[in-house]
Amino acid sequence: MSDFAPQRIETSRLTQNVWSSGPEDGTPVLLVHGNLSSGGFWKYVADELGDDVRVIAPDLRGFGDTDPEPIDATRGLGDMVDDVHALLETLGLAGQQRVNAAGWSMGAGVLQQMMLEHPDDLGAVTLIAPMAPYGFGGTRGADGEQTTPDAAGCGAASANAAFVERLAAGDTSADDPQTSPRIIMRTFYGGGANAANLDEDFLTTELVKTRTGDDFYPGTAVASESWPGRATGDRGLLNTMSPKYYDASAIVDLDRKPAVTWIHGSDDKVVSDASMFDLATLGQLGAVPGWPGADVMPPQPMVQQTRAVLDAYRSAGGTVTEVALEGVDHGIPLAVPGRVAKEITRILVR
User: Fold this and answer.
1) Is the distance from CB of 111 to CB of 83 less than 8 angstroms?
2) Contact 35, 14 (CB under 8 A)
3) Residue range 144-159: average pLDDT?
4) Pick from 143, 16, 84, 55: which is nearest to 337 by CA?
5) Among positive and negative, which fits the CA dihedral 5, 8, 11, 15?
6) Dihedral of the CA atoms 334, 339, 341, 347 (nearest 10)?
7) Mean pLDDT calculated for residue range 61-65
8) Share of the chain above pLDDT 90, in %
9) What phi and psi, each to the nearest 5 degrees, are found at residue 64?
10) Distance (Å, whole) CA 288 – CA 276
């Protein structure tokens, strides 16, 4: 057995920092982190997985210690998808349908797009507090209808400039809580009731490694005639999740459908039907002035959209298990790592 630790792995696309543990001949489990984190955030789940599991948890492009290659948002999360596929190729695991994968938040979005673009890579998929199949923000209804053609208020257009400035400075302090990376992590995905058992300094240090700028976080925004006056650009991280470029609902039509487990928490304020990171929700609450109303720009029903697509996935022959966690927020891999490990293990393809 090897302890959970990082190593640099050169692939055909870039050199990735990959956290790993377990025997090299163990059952491969790919763990894909979410926004404002790194592969290191999986350390608590990795500790709960069996001795026969090989954990592979890369830092995605723009995060952690992976090479800082630019992000083309017009491909959705395609740059990250192809990076992960290249890593599996380097490890001799691509195209074998035996890699078990779990993705958290944005990482679950990476896996949904990966199911479409590299359908023979994954044997089983666990989606943890996943971003909606229609992207983040700017859509209405269960079928993900886009509210504006230019995806106004989505992607980099939704970024908080003061937070970005502190992220760029590597600020790990708790000063000015409204824009502190540490406090935002602690509040929205810092482990909830399990927070006392976590190394917050380590997690915060990993968080502020997130690259900033037009090619990274948050990316570029453009002027818009629609509220709030800015819309999705074509470069950088947040734009990869805009409904202008991201739509993974076609997983319903896959010929081979990996078994899916969907884990979500009742107290999630990041991915919910009233997300505090959706400008429409903030506008409805009066925190962003000029909101045009729910008829024009309603809060995105993220959970409703995920449920609709996964229900259709099941109806089309796929296997879906829903795990609803009462009292748990967005930080599911930190809050209940043992439960996450149990659900990953339950559907392992060996």
Assistant:
1) no
2) no
3) 98
4) 55
5) positive
6) -140
7) 98
8) 99
9) 55, -135
10) 12
Pairing of β 15-21 and β 53-58: antiparallel
Is residue 1 pLDDT above 80, yes or no?
A: no
State the DSSP code for 10: E
**Tell me: the pLDDT tens digits for 241-280?**
999 999 999 999 999 999 999 999 999 999 999 999 999 9
Surface-to-core class of residue 243, CB atoms within 10 Å of its CB (0-12 exposed, 13-18 middle, 19+ buried): buried
| Residue 228 pLDDT | 98
Average pLDDT, the chain: 97
Domain boundaries of the chain, sorted by first residue = 5-346
Residue 194 structure tokens? 């399990």
Place of tokens 């504006």: 148
Angle (CA) 193-198-200 rounded to 5° is 110
Q: b vs e for 316-340, b when ≥16 Cβ sit within 10 Å of the residue's Cβ?
A: eebebeebebeebbbbbbbbbbebb
How big is the CA angle at 172 (ends 187 and 56), to the nearest 5 degrees? 75
Check whether 153 has a pLDDT greater than 80: yes
| Total number of residues shown for the chain | 350
**Spatial separation of the C-alpha atoms in residues 163 and 179, rounded to whole Å:** 5
Strand duo 259-265 + 320-325: pairing? parallel
Measured CA to CA, the distance from residue 346 to residue 238 in angstroms comes to 32
The CATH class, in words, for 5-346 is: alpha beta
The whole-number average pLDDT for the span 102-112 is 98
